[in-house]
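Collaborator request log, item 7. Partner lab (contact: R.S.) asked for a structural prediction of Acyl-CoA thioesterase 2 to inform their binding assays.
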Amino acid sequence: MTGTTPEMSAPLAGLLDVLQLEQTGENSFRGRSLPQLNGRVYGGQVLAQTLLAAGRTVDPTRTPHSLHGYFLRPGDLEEPIEFQVERLRDGRSFSARRTHALQFGKPILSMTASFQEPQGGIEESQEMPQAPDPMTVDSAVEKFSAMDHPVAKFWTSQAAFDIRHVEEPLYLAPASERTDRQMVWMRARGPVADDQLTHRALMAYACDQLMLEPVLRRGGLSWALKGMSIASLDHAMWWHRDARVDEWLLYVQSSPSAQGGRGLGSARVFAQDGTLVASIAQEGMLRIP
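Returned to partner:
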């Protein structure tokens, strides 16, 4: 059972609009930001925009297969983001790009990405673990839509993805069991055009809000902890196969380590038919009162 893709939601339409970058030069682009309650640019947004800027300088037949990025400074919501792309190499099969996202002349994100022509080769992958059908799992969007709370209303108004935790969610309180493992179903709230660069950028956008949750779950914490400071430091992502964000994707997550005010989150991403489509790792800063 895949479930019918919903009609285009206003939050997804707004996100797709923000991801339409203005080209200002052969290797330069400009973008803007979605509103956020904390007054800072959401890391997943600038990560997706940076990947799209790099992809605009590559032959369209080559899709991104990996990225490595560092979040360097918090972004200002009111200031346009300038993207400068450096063409490192265009080989027979691969293209490499280094891209800086800049505000006030300083980088807020620095990313290297690699793109590849479609090629054949060994075909193998890990199997997807058993998971309940996403349509039987509670939706965070539906849950928050029913709440009369300003944070819940804002989150719902901006939620471009339907997020469904198989285990207890950590939004309001810690989970009853301390473990570094969790599984989350996720799908865009509407159809997305057939363009793998866009789908892979949207995967990068969406996963940033989940990657450090296993660290919180293992630490017996929740997002609602007062005084907690949390921020992404670096992000690595590998796409193994084509995937669609407007179809259900299962994020199988863990946290190998947390120490020194930092925590590492990892994820394997599966299509609903069990195909492994991506692997992700992210380290973040976590300061606990």
